Amino acid sequence: MGGISRRASELAKEENNNMQNSPIIEVRGISKTYEGGCEALRNLNMAFPRGELTTLLGPSGCGKTTLLKIIAGLLELTRGEVLIEGKKVDGPGPERAFVFQDFALMPWATVLRNVAFGLELRQVPKKERLEIARKYIDEVGLSGFETSYPHELSGGMRQRVGLARALAVDAEILLMDEPFASVDEQTRRKFQEDLLGLLETEKKTVVFVTHSIEEAIYLSDQVALMTPRPGSIMKIVNTKTERGRNPEEVRRDKKYLDCVEDLWQILKQYLV
Hints:
By secondary structure, the chain is an alpha/beta fold. It is built from nine helices and ten strands. Helix content is 42%, strand content 22%. Helix 3 crosses helix 4 and helix 7 packs across helix 9.
C-alpha cells in the first residue's frame, strides 16, 4: 500500500509540474485584417508560459494592442485561433482581466464601486464584493480614497484603481495595455516596482504591452519582439531578471543594460 501511495503522490506531483510548465495561452496562426484592408497581424504564433510576465514589444503600429485584444476576446480575428488552457477563445472570459491605458473608469462611480464593478457583473453578493474591493484598494495603496470619484484623483491614482479592479475579479491572466504610459517617470518606476510586488503575492500570468525597452526588460520574464506591420513574432528574448534585488541595482546591472542595448539595436532598424 505504501508503494502505491508513493506512486500516486509522484504522479500527482508530475502532473502538477507539467501543468506549471505548459503554456496557459497559445496563439496559433493569428491574422487580423481590418475593414479597408489594413493588415495588422499575419500568421502570428506564440505560447505564453503560466505564471510569467510576457511583454509584447515592437515598432509603433505593429499590432501589439490588436493581439492583446484578440487574446482578451474583445476583437475578432481573421484567421487562426487562441487557446486558453487548451480551450478555444470565442469572447471575453472570467479567467482574463484587461487593464486599459486610459483607465476606463466610470466617472459617476466612487473608487469602491469602480473596483467592485467586475464582481457586480458576476453577481457576487454586495457585502462580499465590497470586502474584496476594499482588500485590493488597500493592496494598490489607495486606502482612504474609497469614496472619491475619478475626477478627484491623479492619473497615477486612477491607474491604480484600474489595476485594483482587474485584481479584484481574481482572473488568472492579466492583460495590460501600456498601463503606465500616461504617468510621469517617477510614478512609472514606482508602479513597476509595485506591480512586481503584487505579482509575487498574486501569482498571475501577465501579457504586457509597452513601447519602453527599459520597462520591458525590467518587468519581464520574456519579451516577444514583433515585426513591423503586419505584425508577427520576430524573436523571443528570455530576460529572467533576478527578482528581489534593489531596483536601482537591477537597472545598473550589466546584464540588464546589455539586454536593453541588444533590443535597441534590433528595433532601431525599423525606425523611419
